[in-house]
Design brief:
Elements (H helix, E strand, L loop, with lengths): L6 E4 L2 E4 L11 E8 L2 E8 L2 H13 L4 E6 L9
Antiparallel strand pairs: 1-2, 3-4, 3-5
Amino acid sequence: MDRWSDCHRVGDIELLRAPIGGGKPTTTYVVTVFEKPFWRTVLTTKDKAEAQAAEQAMVQDDVKAQVETITPKPLKARR
């Protein structure tokens, strides 16, 4: 049974940190588009290729888009 040490909320995205005692943190890719005057989240995925494909599709439609990479830091085991 995995024990998740911490959960953070960034906008509408919940990021889970690596389990205590090891485990590799999972990178999350967030695709956002610019709708004046704000950036809006369109897609949140763990698959880098899917995020890049979504970004390219939006760029082809003359929409300002970007991919953000979020990699949580692993927590140290508590003593």
